[in-house]
Amino acid sequence: MRRSQKKGFTAVELIVIVTIVGLIFIVLLPYYLESLQKAKQRKTMANVNSIGKAMMNWMTDQAGAAAAGASATDVMDLENFEGITHEELDAIMVPVYLSTVPASDGWGSDLDYYMKIIDFNDEDALAIRSPGSDGLFSGTTYSMAPFVSTDYKQDIVWADGLFVRWPQNWKDQ
Fold first, then answer.
1. What is the Rg, in whole angstroms, of the alpha carbon atoms belonging to the chain?
2. pTM: predicted TM-score of the whole model, two decimal places
C-alpha cells in the first residue's frame, strides 16, 4: 500500500511555529517601543532646534548681531518670557525663515513658544518647550542641565540660542 502524500503542516507544527514567533515578538517588543520613543524625542529635538535657529535669525535681522547673543544663567524661568501663539510665530517665520513652523512635538503635544517682538534686546527674548511624552509641563522654572535620555517625560526647553533642558547625548542617538 502506498501512503497518501499530504501537503501542509500538522497542528503540532503550527503550534510550535506560532509559539516561536510569539516568543520572538515578546523579546523584540521592548526594543521596538524604545526605538519609537527615541525617534519621537529626536524629532522633537530637531524641530525645536530648527525653530530656535529661525527665531535667532529673525532676531538678528531685527536687532543686529549684538542682540542675538543673550547670556545663559543656571536657572531659567519662563514667567520672564512673553508667550506667542503658533499662528503669530508662523506669520513671522514663514516663508523667510522656515517653510513651516511645527505646531507639535514628536509625541503630538503642542509646543510652547515665547518671543519678544517689541523689546528683543533683553535677555529672555526667545524660548520653545515641549512637554515630553506625557504631554504635561513640569513647571516654568528650569535648571540648565541634561536629563537621562530614556526619561521621555522630561520637558525639552530651548531658550535664547541654546538648550536649557535636553536629553543627555541627544546628538549621539
1. 24
2. 0.70
